[in-house]
C-alpha cells in the first residue's frame, strides 16, 4: 500500500504533480518565481502533515493548500502561454498554405482570447486543457462544485468564440 | 438545449451526437478548433525543480499520534510472545559472513575489529560469547585488523592463529595455509608445532613443511586490487583466478606443475591477468564464452 510519509512514495506524488501544481499557480499569479515558491510551500505542508493525509487524498490536499496560500498573494501579471512544438512536421498532409496561414492566425487569436478571459474562467479552462485535470478535481482544488466548474468552462468557451469572431 | 453547460461536455467528449447537432455548424467548427488548439498549449515555465524535492523531504514532518485499538494492542502482545518463544527454541547465536566468488566483503566485528573477506571466503563466530572469547572460524582468505583486547583466535582446518591487537592475513587453501603478519605479534599453531610471527614475516604451512617468508608491503595485495603469488604452481594460480574473477578454466586433464610463479597480477583486469600468466607459464587461455576459458599448453 502506498504511504504519503514514505519518501519513495512521496517522490512519486512530487514527480506526478509538481508541473501541474506550478502551472495552476502560474495561472493565478502569472509569475513563475511566485508559482515556484508557493508550490514548494504546498509540498512542504503536505510532507509535514503526511501522517494525516492518506495517499488517495494527497493530490487534492496539495492543490487545496496551494489554493489557500495563493489567496494571500496579490500579484497579477500577464499569463504567457505558448504552443507546444509539433513532434512530427506536417509534411505529408495535403493542407494548403492558405489553410496553414489561417490556422496560425486562429492560434494567435485564441491566445488573445484566452488572455481576455475572466481570471476564474481562465484558470479552470487552462487546468483542463493544459494539465488535463478532471472537472471533479478542479472543483476540489478550487473548493467549488463540479457544476460550477462546468459553468466556468462553458462560459469560457462562449467568451473565447465571441472574442475570436469579433477579431474577424 | 437540455444541458446548460453543454460546451463543458464537448471538451470531455461526453456530448451526444443529437446534442452536438443542435449547435450551428459554423459555431461548432470554432468550438472544435478551440478544443483542438487549446490542448496544444503549454506554459513557459522552465525553472529547475531538481532541488525542490530534496528541500521538501528535508523539511520537518509532524509526529503521528498513534491511537491503537484493543485489537492492535493484542496483536502486538501476540507478536512479542511469538518472538520470545522463537528466541528460546531457535537460539542460534552464530553469525556467518560469506564473500561470493568474484567479490570481496568488509565486516565489522562487535568489538570494532575489522575483517576483509577475499572472494569465496567465509567467517563465522559466536555472537553470544564474543565479549568473552574472540574466536572466528575461517574458510578461505581474510585480512584482519584486530582491536587491542583479550586474545583473538582465527581457527582454520589446518591450524590456529592467535593474536593480541594487530593486523594480519590468513589464507587457507586446499593444500596450504599462509599467514602474514603486518603489525603486532601473531602466533600460528597446529597440533604439532607453533611459531610466532613478527611484522613483515609470513609462514606457509603445507602437508609436510613450514616455510618462512618475508613481505615488503604493509597490507595484503588483494585488498589493493592485486593478486600476489609466492612460488605458486599453475593449478593454484588457476584456482585463484577462478575465485577472484568468478570464471571457470577448463584444464582438460593434468596441469604441468613443474613451474612456479612469483609475482603480482591485477585483480580487476582479467585480460592483463590472463596474459601475464600465459607468458609466465607459456600457456594459452582460449575463451569459450563470457565466463569460461580453456587452458591450452604449448
Automatic annotation (TrEMBL), chain A:
Top-level division of the source organism's lineage: Bacteria
Single Gene Ontology BP annotation: DNA-templated transcription initiation
Entry keywords, A to Z: Sigma factor, Transcription, Transcription regulation
Pfam families: Sigma70_r2, Sigma70_r4_2
Domain RNA polymerase sigma factor 70 region 4 type: from-to ranges: 108-159
GO function terms (MF aspect): DNA binding; sigma factor activity
Domain RNA polymerase sigma-70 region: 14-72
Annotated protein name in UniProt: RNA polymerase sigma-70 factor, ECF subfamily
From TrEMBL, chain B:
A GO term for molecular function: sigma factor antagonist activity
InterPro entries registered for this protein in UniProt: FecR, FecR_C, Ferrdict_sens_TM
Domain Protein FecR C-terminal: 227-291
Listed transmembrane segments: 70-90
Alphabetical keyword list: Membrane, Transmembrane, Transmembrane helix
Entry keyword annotation includes Transmembrane helix: yes
Domain FecR protein: 97-187
Pfam families found in the cross-reference section: FecR, FecR_C
Name of protein: FecR family protein
Amino acid at each position: 500500500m502506498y504511504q504519503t510519509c514514505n519518501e519513495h512514495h512521496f517522490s512519486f506524488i512530487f514527480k506526478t504533480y509538481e508541473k501541474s501544481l506550478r502551472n495552476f499557480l502560474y495561472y493565478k499569479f502569472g509569475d513563475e518565481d511566485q508559482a515556484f515558491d508557493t508550490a514548494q510551500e504546498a509540498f512542504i505542508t503536505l510532507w509535514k502533515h503526511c501522517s494525516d493525509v492518506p495517499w488517495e487524498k494527497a493530490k487534492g490536499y496539495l492543490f487545496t493548500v496551494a489554493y489557500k496560500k495563493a489567496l494571500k498573494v496579490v500579484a497579477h501579471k500577464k499569463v504567457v502561454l505558448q504552443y507546444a512544438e509539433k513532434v512530427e512536421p506536417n509534411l505529408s498532409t495535403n493542407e494548403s498554405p492558405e489553410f496553414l496561414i489561417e490556422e496560425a492566425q486562429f492560434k494567435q487569436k485564441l491566445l488573445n482570447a484566452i488572455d481576455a478571459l475572466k481570471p476564474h474562467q481562465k484558470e479552470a479552462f487552462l487546468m483542463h486543457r493544459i494539465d488535463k485535470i478532471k472537472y471533479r478535481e478542479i472543483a476540489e482544488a478550487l473548493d467549488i462544485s463540479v457544476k460550477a466548474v462546468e459553468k466556468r468552462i462553458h462560459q469560457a468557451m462562449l467568451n473565447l468564440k465571441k472574442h475570436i469572431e469579433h477579431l474577424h | 438545449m437540455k444541458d446548460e453547460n453543454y460546451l463543458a461536455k464537448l471538451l470531455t467528449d461526453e456530448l451526444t451526437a443529437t446534442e452536438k447537432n443542435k449547435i450551428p455548424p459554423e459555431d461548432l467548427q470554432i468550438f472544435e478548433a478551440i478544443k483542438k488548439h487549446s490542448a496544444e498549449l503549454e506554459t513557459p515555465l522552465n525553472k529547475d525543480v531538481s532541488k525542490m524535492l530534496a528541500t521538501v523531504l528535508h523539511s520537518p514532518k509532524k509526529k503521528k499520534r498513534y491511537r491503537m485499538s484493543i485489537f492492535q494492542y493484542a496483536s502486538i502482545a501476540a507478536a512479542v510472545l511469538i518472538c520470545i518463544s522463537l528466541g528460546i527454541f531457535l537460539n542460534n547465536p552464530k553469525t556467518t559472513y560469506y564473500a561470493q566468488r568474484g567479490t570481496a566483503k568488509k565486516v565489522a566485528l562487535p568489538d570494532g575489529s575489522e575483517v576483509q573477506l577475499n572472494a569465496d571466503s567465509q567467517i563465522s563466530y559466536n555472537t553470544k560469547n564474543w565479549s568473552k572469547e574472540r574466536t572466528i572460524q575461517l574458510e578461505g582468505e581474510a585480512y584482519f585488523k584486530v582491536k587491542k583486547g583479550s586474545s583473538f583466535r582465527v581457527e582454520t582446518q589446518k591450524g590456529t592463529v592467535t593474536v593480541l591487537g594487530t593486523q594480519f592475513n590468513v589464507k587457507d587453501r586446499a593444500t596450504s595455509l599462509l599467514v602474514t603478519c603486518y603489525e603486532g605479534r601473531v602466533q600460528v599453531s597446529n597440533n604439532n608445532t607453533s611459531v610466532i610471527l613478527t611484522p613483515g614475516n609470513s609462514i606457509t604451512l603445507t602437508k609436510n613443511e613450514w616455510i618462512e617468508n618475508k613481505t615488503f608491503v604493509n597490507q595484503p595485495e588483494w585488498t589493493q586490487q592485486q593478486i600476489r603469488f609466492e612460488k605458486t604452481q599453475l593449478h593454484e594460480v588457476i584456482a585463484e583466478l577462478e575465485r577472484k574473477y568468478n570464471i571457470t578454466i577448463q584444464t582438460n586433464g593434468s596441469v604441468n606443475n613443474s613451474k612456479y610463479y612469483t609475482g603480482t597480477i591485477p585483480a580487476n583486469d582479467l585480460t592483463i591477468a590472463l596474459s601475464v600468466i600465459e607468458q609466465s607459464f607459456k600457456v594459452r587461455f582460449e575463451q569459450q564464452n563470457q565466463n569460461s576459458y580453456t587452458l591450452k599448453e604449448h
